[in-house]
Please model this.
Amino acid sequence: MKKFVATLLSIMLVISGCANSQVEEAPMVIGEISQQQLMANHKFFQQSYQLSQLSELEVVAINRWPKDLHVDVYFGSWCHDSVREVPRFLKIVAQSPTLSNRLIALDYAKLEPSGSAKSHDIKYTPTFIVYQNDKEIGRIIERPKVSLTADISAML
Model:
């Protein structure tokens, strides 16, 4: 019995990634969403965005990034890590409007209708997949090692 309980708990931890850790009043978002839709309908993301600020050094680093960068952001509207990191990323986008990006919201099973999350083996939220010249150059999973700006800059 103990072995069964331990196995069940292990499976639940692996599946959860970023489990229902943030209570959200708006309905769960699933699929591609615009920044405007996210901010208009999810107050926790909006509040986190308003509190986020980039340092002068981050702005300098962002302005040095090549114009051929693209970032796919897989996140959960229900996930506290996403509520923390996605608005920080959107501050970067505001600083660098040429930075191409897609926001893809996932359900609790880390899936969405297009199947993109499954084909990219997304297991945790948020996951930022960074591309240059249409080739994946790195990922940031759940939280950056230093900061989103520093971690993306290190990939370059």
